[in-house]
Design brief:
Immunoglobulin-like, Neutral Protease, domain 2, four-stranded mixed beta sheet
């Protein structure tokens, strides 16, 4: 086949399949290796102004990006899903040349771009991707409530904000000066967004909601939900005495359930503040938006939904509990306030947030409740690949169930190794120290170094063993005579404290690779409280 025939064939093939291919974002992920053109760029602020055409499932408007270039560059690079149409790019009154390649926008300028502050405005329109299985497979969900009102929801954690607006799609850079969103929808609908509502401007049959954040924010949290919402409110006084509004954007048809959810939110906030410190967003709000899919940790407007039944709770001790509602709210501390520098370390936000569910059970039902959920997490661990595989990983490559369950179980291991008097204050320090929060980012090494410093122990071998491998601790128990036993570990990363049940009591020993002699009238039981992911062999 000669070159001309080949090109003609390929054009025909891609034209015939364009519709199917252009709507598919199953390949898409967020993060990964940071491209040099984007490493040169520090995002300061986003402004989004979009008209939402609900009948046609399309959007139109612009995104304005304020950023700082560390050094001069001949090209600026942003991410945007390829089937949204870019119509114009400008800086001030000057139009800029650009070209598209895949899900990238390359912007060029005669003479290049100087180092320092820049503002680029990108006009665009089109049909954003439709979510296949939200929130795990993201995009827009164009739904209706039971009375036929439009209900529009966005999810994009694993794909990134580029599914609907131009951005630098990498977890290591957030807009330090926040975001302004101007979202225009048909009259009668409400837009629930991040930060604080500044104004609602009505014109004809449309109205524009202006939402503004005062804090830095991950790009997958820069989004909104649209519905026939009622807003249920109450004030919350934080552990530090600050007053923050709780706002629940609930469908008009479900408003009878609003006070129940506000009660849970207030109670859950008290639990989380005990372990993680004051609610992080005191200058904004404690928001919830009802959605038709399981919830997400969208900053100051976490979403809440349940496919199997609205507002369902179950009992933990005597307390009503919604795991979906609690988990996403706990992400306000770990994910939104304490943020991974790289998706390679996603276990931090998902593992510690999952661990917070055990802390809730501890408050509601004592250590028995805590132990019960920890052991449930253990049964869900697949241990097929390490939680931390490498650096500069994308979201798809690291996203497994183990970042939740094994991540949570590792926090339980740290509690066992350090003891409560060290573990809980250090966990709170991770959630409150400015070194790790808001505009700063964390890695596994940061977490390890904090716990090592606070404990006075070198915990790196333990972190590496459980997070960077799939090994389990191998414990051997050998009978050496009448009521005589020996205990050791053959693959110990470091000497570790361990409880041994013997003679009807708990003996505390330090396990090493050398045999330790123990006298007992009863067979030994190693680690009866299950602090370690392990295998135990006896002769």
């Amino acid at each position: 086949m000669n070159r001309t025939v080949f090109i003609f064939f390929m054009l025909c093939f891609f034209t015939a399949n364009a519709s199917a291919q252009d709507r598919d974002i199953s390949y898409m992920s967020s993060g990964g290796k940071l491209k040099p053109l984007q490493a040169n760029m520090d995002i300061r602020h986003y402004t989004l102004s979009l008209d939402i055409d609900i009948p046609n499932q399309s959007i139109a408007g612009y995104t304005e990006i304020d950023f700082v270039l560390a050094k001069p560059s001949d090209t600026i690079l942003f991410d945007l899903v390829h089937f949204l149409n870019v119509t114009k790019i400008s800086a001030g009154k000057t139009n800029k040349s650009f070209y598209r390649s895949g899900d990238f926008i390359y912007i060029t300028n005669t003479g290049g771009f100087k180092a320092g502050r820049q503002t680029i405005k990108i006009d665009y329109n089109g049909k954003p991707p439709v979510a296949v299985n939200p929130p795990w497979k993201g995009g827009f969900s164009w739904k209706k409530d039971s009375t036929g009102n439009p209900w529009v929801v966005i999810n994009c954690q694993l794909e990134g904000g580029k599914v609907y607006f131009p951005c630098k799609d990498h977890p290591s850079d957030e807009p330090n000066e926040g975001v302004d969103m101007f979202i225009t929808v048909p009259k009668g609908l409400t837009v629930a967004g991040p930060g604080l509502l500044q104004s609602i401007k009505r014109k004809g049959n449309a109205q524009t909601f202006h939402w503004k954040t005062n804090y830095t924010i991950s790009n997958y949290c820069i989004l909104f939900n649209i519905g026939k919402y009622e807003i249920a409110k109450r004030m919350f006084t934080t552990s530090e005495g600050n007053k923050v509004p709780i706002e629940f954007y609930i469908l008009e048809e479900d408003k009878a359930n609003a006070q129940k959810i506000l009660d849970l939110r207030e109670r859950d906030a008290r639990v989380l503040e005990k372990y993680f410190g004051e609610y992080p967003w005191v200058r904004e709000k404690m928001g919830i938006a009802q959605v038709p899919n399981p919830g997400m940790e969208h900053q100051t407007m976490i979403t809440y939904g349940d496919r199997s039944g609205k507002f369902r709770t179950y009992k933990v001790g005597t307390w009503d509990y919604s795991g979906n509602l609690f988990h996403e709210f706990a992400h306000e501390w770990f994910a939104n306030k304490v943020t991974n520098k790289d998706w390679a370390h996603m276990w931090i936000q998902e593992g510690i947030t999952t661990y917070s569910e055990a802390l809730f059970c501890r408050e509601a039902n004592g250590e028995r409740g805590y132990d019960s959920i920890i052991q449930m997490f253990k049964t869900k661990i697949k241990n097929e690949k390490a939680l931390v595989q490498a650096e500069e990983m994308n979201s798809s490559d690291v996203y497994t169930g183990d970042i939740y369950t094994k991540g949570a179980y590792f926090m339980h291991t740290l509690r066992g190794v350090l003891g409560d008097d060290l573990f809980f204050p250090t966990l709170k320090k991770l959630a409150t120290d400015p070194k790790y929060t808001y505009s700063n980012f964390v890695t596994t090494d940061d977490v390890e170094q904090l716990f090592s410093k606070e404990s006075g122990k070198d915990l790196k071998p333990l972190f590496d063993f459980y997070l960077r491998t799939t090994e389990k601790l191998k414990i051997e128990i050998k009978t050496t005579g009448f009521q005589s036993y020996q205990v050791r570990s053959t693959n110990l990363p470091m000497p570790l404290p361990m409880d041994i049940a013997a003679d009807g009591e708990i003996k505390k020993i330090t396990v090493t690779k050398d045999w330790i002699k123990i006298k007992s009238a009863t067979p030994l039981l190693a680690d009866p409280n299950g602090y370690y992911l392990k295998t135990v062999t006896t002769d």
